[in-house]
UniProtKB/TrEMBL annotation:
InterPro entries reported in the protein's UniProt record: CbiM (IPR018024), CbiM/NikMN (IPR002751)
Gene name of this polypeptide: cbiM
Coarse class of the protein's main subcellular location: membrane
Protein name according to UniProt: Cobalt transport protein CbiM
Function: Part of the energy-coupling factor (ECF) transporter complex CbiMNOQ involved in cobalt import.
């Protein structure tokens, strides 16, 4: 019976991943959103962010290898985390001045597998979006990876653990991790743009305020929405993948009673 249940759970995860990928690819219209577009950054800044992001990617590969070798049964949950990030970060909503905003979806994977694993999954998501959706670019992949696949997941991981230590309330910790990681991603992007394009008057600070203001109007409600959605997905995972969450030491299974009924 347990084998049938496990097979059913795996089948469900595969179906969700395949459908999510199909929906995104089948709607591959060009997009111009939060990711810094191809060729937008000056060469020195594009190279700088590539150099900064690459060490995290290498460490992330080692982390993923360790996870999959130690617990091969977690591969489907890893795939689901990547699909969740792909789907959410491909949703575009109008912002001001002709720009767009979107969720990031990296908080869930960071809580499940740690920020280093998400540095790889998030970077792969950004690569596929640049190639398939014209969302972001290859020369700017280092900058986009640092903001969404590195800074966001590290923030989510720290916020989750800090909230758990202070309150012990897991759903609140999940919500804050996902929402604040989303907001930090946009703050980092604003910093990157302000460094590359300081204002003639006011320099970096004035430019940062301008770029951050472009995203703030739509991103705050989006971050709240992403936090709520991540909590819903977490509830689903607790119901259908408790063994995997127990392996990750995120939940504890209640011991079964040996007393006769």
């Amino acid at each position: 019976m347990s084998r049938i249940i496990l097979k059913s759970k795996r089948t469900t995860l595969v179906i969700i991943g395949v459908l999510s990928f199909y929906l995104i690819v089948s709607a591959s219209a060009p997009a111009y959103a939060m990711h810094i577009m191809e060729g937008f950054l000056p060469p020195k800044w594009a190279i700088f962010w590539w150099v900064v992001a690459l060490p995290f990617f290498v460490l992330g590969l080692r982390s993923l290898t360790r996870i999959t070798q130690t617990n091969p049964e977690l591969k489907l949950l890893l795939a689901l985390s990547g699909a969740f990030t792909f789907v959410l970060s491909a949703l575009k909503m109008p912002s001001v001045t002709g720009s767009c905003a979107h969720p990031t979806g990296t908080g869930l994977g960071a809580v499940l597998f740690g920020p280093l694993a998400m540095s790889v999954l998030g970077s792969l998501v950004l690569l596929f979006q640049a190639l398939l959706l014209a969302h972001g670019g290859l020369t700017t992949l280092g900058a986009n990876a640092f903001s969404m696949a590195i800074a966001g997941p590290f923030a989510a991981y720290w916020i989750y653990n800090l909230t758990m230590r202070l309150s012990g309330k897991q759903r609140i910790a999940i919500f804050l991790a996902a929402a604040l990681a989303d907001l930090l991603t946009y703050i980092i992007t604003s910093i990157q743009l302000a460094l590359a394009f300081p204002a003639p008057i006011g320099g970096f600070i004035a430019s940062f305020i301008k770029f951050a203001g472009i995203f703030a109007i739509t991103q705050i409600p989006l971050a709240i929405s992403e936090g709520l959605l991540t909590v819903l997905v977490w509830n689903w995972l607790q119901s259908y993948t408790p063994q995997e969450l127990e392996l990750l030491k995120l939940i504890k299974q209640e011991p079964q009673s040996n007393e006769p009924i």
